[in-house]
Design a protein that fits this description.
114 residues, alpha+beta, 30s Ribosomal Protein S19, Chain A, 2 helices, 3 strands, 27% helix, Ribosomal_uS19_bac-type, ribosomal protein
């Protein structure tokens, strides 16, 4: 849900200052905690380090991102996987298949020259 047209898009004033200090063509990573700042056209091509609550995630702005928020591209929740007996059995089967493939690769090839 966007802000009203009367208010306009939001950008953190400190982040705006950092963006204006960067010269065109300069490769600088701008570190920010402002996940709710809107991506402006001036930000296209810049690299941001957006904090997700634990660490910083690199976000490289492109034209398709204009109008979105910085936080949308830095997920703050980590999906591990759904659990259950079936998931465990599938994981075990995948591990067994990987072990067999590794053993087959290590076994000497029949008819190879020594």
């Amino acid at each position: 849900m966007s802000r009203s047209l009367k208010k306009g898009p939001f950008i953190d004033p400190k982040l705006l200052e950092k963006i204006q200090k960067v010269k065109p063509g300069q490769k600088v990573e701008i570190k920010t905690w402002s996940r709710d700042s809107t991506i402006f056209p001036e930000m296209v091509g810049m690299t941001f380090l957006v904090h997700n609550g634990k660490n910083f995630i690199t976000v490289i702005c492109s034209e398709n991102m204009v109008g979105h928020k910085l936080g949308e591209f830095s997920p703050s929740r980590k999906f591990t996987r759904h659990g259950g007996r079936m998931a465990k059995e599938e994981a075990m089967a995948a591990q067994d298949a990987e072990k067999r493939a590794m053993e087959a690769a290590k076994a000497p090839v029949e008819g190879a020259k020594k």
